[in-house]
Amino acid sequence: MNTPISQEAECTEALDPMAQKVATAAARLKPLEDSTVEEARVLREERGNPFAPPACDLASIIDHEIPSRGGSIPVRLYKPLGNKKGLQPALIFYHGGGFVLGNVEQYDTFAQQIAFHSGCMVVSVDYRLAPDTKLTAIHEDGFDAYQWIRNNSAEWGIDQARLAVGGDSAGGNLTVAVLLACKRNQFPMPAFQILLYPSIDLAMSHASVEEFADGYFLTKAGMSWFRSHYLESEEQPRQPQFNYLTADLSDLPPAYVLTAGFDPLRDEGKAFADRLADFGVPVEHVCYCDMIHGFLSFAGGIPAGMEALEKIGIELRRALSANDN
């Protein structure tokens, strides 16, 4: 494997060539901060993702809707091949996109890859987006989805004792929100968490935000654009419920935290991994040192993205393997 991996938050002297190609192509597009939400969504739909992970051979992919405080939430259920007997492990996955962009369809082959490599079911959650829905209600969608799936897990063949949660970027933020909501509401925790270049510090206060402010796919200006749509106030990122780096993280489930060397979110991801460790939570942090934010979504063109998806599958299989049938 050519991509350097570190347990620290660090970057190489230069980007991986394919990651550089993606970053350069992104820089040619109309910046988010100069776009309306509608323009940004249309551009993403029209362009698609030529470097998306390839599709996988699975047993089934089925769309459902589940009830929530906001009405209902679409979800997509991925079942891997294998025809195992009994209830099976599963991952509830929250996609990225800054709480403004992204959907289950755009993450379809991403979720397929995780199901394929882990042998676990994957439930991909199409939570509501800003600006129509703000941060508090988006977090409620995430928790509502987790509660319903756990409470009704047997109907879908899921073993609630082997249930994980995870997400990338904004979906990583939503994952932590779900865990802390479980803690506040004394609702059973999942068995494992996966945080992929997570958005942890909504105040954007870490050094890597400035270090990689422009030219590395995700920009500081783009992050500010996202914030302008999902925040309910400028003070919200520092309120206790949303400030994860000052939260009590005791009793959270074991974690796998992945960051990228040239990512504005790199340092906050590592800071959260360190804080989990401070509270005695078993955590593994890996930094792909020559990668950009979002590189897993470009695994069809960036080999390290595919290798990372395979590693995520291995981590899920290991964490949820107890009493496997």
Count of runs of 4 or more consecutive helical residues = 9
Task: Name the helicity range.
Answer: 25-40%
**From the helix content, strand content and strand pairing, which structural class follows?**
alpha/beta
Cα(first) to Cα(last) distance is: 32 Å
Strand content: 15-25%
User: What is the third-level CATH name, the topology?
Assistant: Rossmann fold
Question: Which helices and strands appear, and what pairs or packs with what?
Answer:
Elements lengths: L4 E2 L10 H11 L9 H11 L12 E9 L2 E9 L8 E7 L13 H11 L2 E5 L9 H17 L6 E11 L1 H16 L6 E5 L10 H5 L8 H11 L24 E6 L5 H13 L4 E6 L14 H17 L6
Parallel strand pairs: 4-5, 4-6, 6-7, 7-8, 8-9
Antiparallel strand pairs: 1-9, 2-3, 3-5
Helix pairs in contact: 3-9, 4-5
Note down, in words, how this protein is organized.
- This protein is an alpha/beta fold and 325 residues long.
- The chain has one domain (5-319): Alpha/Beta hydrolase fold, catalytic domain (Rossmann fold), CATH 3.40.50.
- 34% of the residues lie in helices and 18% in strands.
- It contains 9 helices and 9 strands.
- The longest helix has 17 residues, at 135-151.
- The chain is globular, with a radius of gyration of 18 Å.
- The model has no long low-confidence stretch (mean pLDDT 96).
Short description:
With 325 residues, the protein is an alpha/beta fold. The chain is built from 9 helices and 9 strands.
Feature tags:
single chain; 325 residues; Rossmann fold; 9-stranded mixed β-sheet; 9 strands
